[in-house]
């Protein structure tokens, strides 16, 4: 407690020293500079209202202004115009965000239970978000490893569609990893002892650079979502489409355009945002430099999705399927494409429904679940359930089991295995599935049947 008092006293002295050189007119009444335990207020002429930008704090909108009025007698006014304190009263009410002000009203009106429930829901959704992001980044990294591992073996994975998937996975993995790093840093700051300054949010340059990286990765993720929607739309609706001619343009849009957008936003925010870090920057009007194009991407992808579903319904009707089957497949396609095309992000951009606890809980859990597990959805749909990837995995498993079986046969019959070595396939992954099914080299070399034909006989003469 003594240390806190000393800090406040020292800060008040520094506040007086800061405005010591401020000139005032003779014969006029002025309120002296004062430290209100949060902000340092300059000398203010009587009957005037001083304004300062709101402080950087959780639940506060730093783009708004806090007010403090100097009375007619040259003394700082209290809450109701009285002068109950030398430092007067500072009106921080305009600084609060709508969510914070809603909770404060609940507390002031005696409805503390509702406020506590909302706070508990917010804490639970942060835990849900942390778990979802951790699972998503793991799934994305596994998917990237699979795509890179089997690319040289499977020609079907060396196409523009798979390249777009990989770029989207990379952008999302960077965004998720950066967000997790910031969450962990915030958690460590809360649990750390007072005075700890070795953290991202207490290092101005590192803090700004981290948020710039976060927004760049998020913008790139939206751009690659747009490319996914555009490419899929063309594949479904256009009969002739040269996919190899546009990949350079895709990379320029996916990685180059976000650089221009993010640097523009970062420069403008650094010039007009007078804080050491970009905390609560999403409340500023400058954030629309990034958020506006993102909402445009979501709108375009939504239009792409509607047209894709329309084309699918037309094609299903032409195939003489039942109406129920048509609706089922169309809805299934829409549900599968929604996470990919980023339409679920509309929920996070919408206003928070705080008036009713039930609606707030439903909105909060749904929004954080969809956004945090989006990486897992993408990895599952476009990698783990991908037929080409599953074929590559099956072939790899076939190679492993075949080689293991060959080793076992070698332990039992060394001479037979030696003969097999001259005819064994070096990599079954390079062989098509039909060739694997019709290949009889295991039976030729490793069969225990006495009637096994000689290796000098051609394989085509063997009856399977």
TrEMBL record:
Keyword annotations of the record: Cell membrane, G-protein coupled receptor, Glycoprotein, Membrane, Receptor, Transducer, Transmembrane, Transmembrane helix
Gene Ontology molecular-function annotations: G protein-coupled peptide receptor activity
TM ranges: 130-148, 168-184, 221-241, 253-275, 295-313, 334-354, 360-385
One of the record's GO cellular component terms: plasma membrane
UniProt xrefs under SUPFAM superfamilies: Hormone receptor domain (SSF111418)
An individual GO BP term: adenylate cyclase-modulating G protein-coupled receptor signaling pathway
Pfam families: 7tm_2, HRM
Protein's UniProt keywords contain Lipid metabolism: no
This protein's name: PDF receptor
Native species: Microctonus hyperodae (Parasitoid wasp)
């Amino acid at each position: 407690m003594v240390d806190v008092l000393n800090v406040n006293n020292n800060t008040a002295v520094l506040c007086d020293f800061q405005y010591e050189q401020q000139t005032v007119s003779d014969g006029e009444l002025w309120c002296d500079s004062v430290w209100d335990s949060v902000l340092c207020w300059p000398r203010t002429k009587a009957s005037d209202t001083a304004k300062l930008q709101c402080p950087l704090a959780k639940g506060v909108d730093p783009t708004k202004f806090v007010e403090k009025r100097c009375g007619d007698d040259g003394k700082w006014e209290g809450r109701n115009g009285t002068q109950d304190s030398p430092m007067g009263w500072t009106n921080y009410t305009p600084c609060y965000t709508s969510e914070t002000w809603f909770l404060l009203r609940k507390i002031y009106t005696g409805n503390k239970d509702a406020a506590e429930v909302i706070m508990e829901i917010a804490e639970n959704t942060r835990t849900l978000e942390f778990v979802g992001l951790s699972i998503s980044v793991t799934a994305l990294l596994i998917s990237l490893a699979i795509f890179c591992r089997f690319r040289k073996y499977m020609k079907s994975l060396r196409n523009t569609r798979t390249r777009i998937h990989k770029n989207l996975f990379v952008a999302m993995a960077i965004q998720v990893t950066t967000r997790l790093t910031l969450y962990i840093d915030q958690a460590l700051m809360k649990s750390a002892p007072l005075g700890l300054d070795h953290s991202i949010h207490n290092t101005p340059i590192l803090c700004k650079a981290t948020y710039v990286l976060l927004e760049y990765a998020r913008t790139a993720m939206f751009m690659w979502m747009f490319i996914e929607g555009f490419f899929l739309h063309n594949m479904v609706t256009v009969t002739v489409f040269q996919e190899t001619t546009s990949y350079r343009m895709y990379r320029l849009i996916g990685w180059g355009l976000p650089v221009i957008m993010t640097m523009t936003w970062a420069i403008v925010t650094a010039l007009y945002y007078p804080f050491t870090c970009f905390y609560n920057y999403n409340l500023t009007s400058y954030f629309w430099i990034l958020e506006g194009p993102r909402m445009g991407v979501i709108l375009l992808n939504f239009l792409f999705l509607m047209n894709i579903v329309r084309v699918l319904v037309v094609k299903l009707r032409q195939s003489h399927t039942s109406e129920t089957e048509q609706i089922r497949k169309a809805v299934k396609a829409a549900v599968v494409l929604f996470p990919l095309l980023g339409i679920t992000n509309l929920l996070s951009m919408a206003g928070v429904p705080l008036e009713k606890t039930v609606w707030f809980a439903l909105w909060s859990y749904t929004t954080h679940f969809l956004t945090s597990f989006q990486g897992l959805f993408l990895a599952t749909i476009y990698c783990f359930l991908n037929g080409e990837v599953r074929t590559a995995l099956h072939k790899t498993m076939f190679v492993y089991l075949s080689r293991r079986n060959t080793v076992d046969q070698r332990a039992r019959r060394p001479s037979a295995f030696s003969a097999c070595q001259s005819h064994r396939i070096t990599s079954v992954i390079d062989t098509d599935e039909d060739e694997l099914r019709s290949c009889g080299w295991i039976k030729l070399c490793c069969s225990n049947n006495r009637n096994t034909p000689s290796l000098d006989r051609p394989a085509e003469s063997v009856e399977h």
